[in-house]
Structure formats: C-alpha cells, structure tokens
C-alpha cells in the first residue's frame, strides 16, 4: 500500500491571454514563404517587401490607392442581380449572391467611381474578386457601361481595374452579352477622343480578357498576374502539350506583345497620372482644366 497518493490533475491553460499572439497579425507570403507583419503589408499596398509578390486587393483599397486623398464619388451602388434564370447548381444562385453581399458589403462585383488622379478628373471601375470571383454578370456590365457613358458626358478618361474569373455563367447568355455591351460603350468613348486605360491584375481571365480588358489605349499589368482566356490546365488538356514556363503571366504576355507595360502597384498611381497627361495632350506638370465631377 502506497504511503501517499498524488491526485492527477489536467494541465490548466494559462490565465493570462495577453501573452498570446492575436490572429491576423501575420501573413505568410505564398511566393517566398516569408512571414510578414500585417500592418507592414498594408503600408506597402499589399506587396510583399521580400519578393514583391502582389497580394489581391479589394475594390475599395484599389480606389483609395489611386484617387487623390483617397476621396471619390461612387455610382450605382444599389444595383444588384435579380437572378433572372433562377439558376441552381450545388446551391441556388440567389444564395450565392446573398452570401457574397454579406461577405463583401457590396451588391455586386464592381465599384464605379469618379475622382482625381494627380489632379486629373477620372472615372474608375474597380472589380471585386471576393464577390463570386469578380465574375461579370448583368450588373457588372451595366455599371461599367454607365460609368463609360458618364465619362463621355463629362469628357474625362476611363480606367478599369480588372480582377475577374470571367463571365458569370449563372446568368447564362445574359452575362456573355455584357462583353459586347461594354465593348460598344468603349467604342463610343474612343470616337469621343477620350482615353481608356486597362489595368490587369491577378487574375484576369475568361470573358473579361476576351472583351474590355484587352481594349485599352494602354494595357497595363501588375507583375506575375495571371492573364488569359482559358486556364493553363484546360489548355494543356485540350492541346495535349506542356505549356512554356510562365505561360499567361504578365511577363510572358509583355514579351509576346499582348500588353504594353508591367507596373509595380506601388508605382501605379504615378504611372497612370503620367499616362493620362500624355494621352490628354498635356505637358508633364501642367495644370489640368477644372472639371465638375459631381455635375
């Protein structure tokens, strides 16, 4: 018989939670695997300071990056899809829309706004990838078209920040019609003698690439962005050949003449400002003619 008996007690967790590292303070870069302090990443415009990997940005951050003093006027923010086909795959399209609205705080996958870039009045449409993959449905097509038409009325240039998986097939042919609709509006913008700049980010694919993304007077891409129509895996399965290294990335497309220039996100605002001045026939540093953005 034992002289004493020691009761077994489970190890209790530490009561002081202040020593724990809160979630969301660090981000692991998918390119170089370095761990980055989240605030450092935000201050660097979501660009990895180690390997210059460009993380995805939401539409609001895109607009804040480009517009002077992070100020802009948004248009058509209440437009949303009515699920015209009553489409259902693994779950109803209406449920997907509701979930995306709750997650992003947006009614659809694009934000259209006007403001000034380097003191130049500009219309910008920024796509929201978090909303069903930034897919282009009826609302996206309508909002971008309205933004272009408003730009024509106000005689200001248009910039579209592309970030999309392509046409939203839950809306069927109606989504494909937006390719022609936006392209026709850009044709009217061109005839009006106003610049259109397309900025392609990761990813820009499908019907967006096959329409307005490649129609810019100047086509800009972020480094290593995936840009193409069908995905590399689908192409390899179709042609039964191994694709070249870096296929459909910005650098590959620049080499083949599909885009005009690759611009680091941190230099994008300055590059757009210079481009807009040149395309508007202004000398560098010249004062722009005042425009009524909210007229």
Average pLDDT, all residues: 91
Estimated share of beta-strand residues: 15-25%
Question: What is the quaternary state of this protein?
Answer: single chain
CATH class value of the largest domain: Alpha Beta
In DSSP terms (H or I, runs of 4 or more residues), the helix count works out at: 9
- Low-pLDDT stretches: none
Which fold name corresponds to the CATH topology of the largest domain?
2-enoyl-CoA Hydratase, Chain A, domain 1
- The secondary structure category is alpha/beta
* Full CATH superfamily name of the largest domain: 2-enoyl-CoA Hydratase, Chain A, domain 1
Q: Give the overall shape.
A: globular
* Strand and helix order: EEHHEHEEHEHEHEHHEH
Could you explain how this protein is built, in words?
With 295 residues, the protein is of the alpha/beta class. It contains nine helices and nine strands. The protein folds into two domains: 25-55, no CATH class; 57-279, 2-enoyl-CoA Hydratase, Chain A, domain 1 (Alpha-Beta Complex). It is 31% helix and 16% strand. The protein has a seven-stranded mixed sheet, with helices on both faces. The protein has a two-stranded antiparallel ribbon with strand order 1-2. Helix 6 (206-209) links the parallel strand 7 and strand 8. Helix 4 (138-154) runs parallel beside helix 5 (173-191). The longest helix is centred in the middle third of the chain and has 19 residues, at 173-191. The protein is globular and about 100 Å long.
């Amino acid at each position: 018989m034992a002289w004493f008996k020691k009761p077994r007690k489970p190890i209790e967790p530490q009561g002081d939670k202040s020593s724990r590292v809160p979630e969301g303070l660090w981000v692991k870069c998918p390119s170089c695997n370095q761990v980055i302090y989240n605030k450092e990443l935000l201050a660097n415009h979501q660009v990895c300071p180690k390997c210059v990997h460009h993380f995805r940005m939401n539409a609001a951050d895109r607009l804040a990056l480009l517009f002077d003093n992070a100020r802009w006027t948004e248009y058509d923010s209440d437009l949303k899809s009515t699920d015209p086909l009553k489409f259902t795959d693994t779950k109803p399209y209406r449920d997907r829309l509701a979930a995306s609205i709750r997650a992003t705080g947006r009614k659809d996958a694009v934000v259209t706004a006007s403001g000034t870039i380097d003191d130049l009045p500009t219309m910008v449409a920024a796509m929201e990838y978090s909303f069903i993959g930034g897919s282009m449905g009826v609302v996206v097509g309508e909002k971008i078209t309205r933004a272009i038409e408003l730009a024509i009325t106000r005689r200001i240039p248009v910039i579209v920040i592309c970030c999309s998986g392509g046409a939203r097939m839950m809306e069927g042919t109606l989504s494909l019609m937006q390719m022609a609709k936006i392209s026709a509006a850009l044709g009217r913008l061109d005839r009006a003698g106003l610049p259109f700049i397309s900025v392609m980010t990761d990813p820009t694919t499908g019907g967006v690439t096959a329409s307005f993304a490649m129609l810019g007077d100047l086509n800009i891409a972020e480094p290593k962005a995936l840009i193409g129509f069908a995905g590399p895996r689908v192409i390899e399965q179709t042609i039964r050949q191994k694709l070249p290294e870096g296929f459909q990335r910005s650098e590959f497309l620049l080499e083949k003449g599909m885009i005009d220039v690759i611009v680091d996100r941190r230099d994008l605002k300055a590059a757009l400002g210079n481009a807009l001045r040149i395309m508007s026939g202004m000398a560098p540093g010249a004062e722009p003619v005042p425009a009524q953005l909210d007229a």
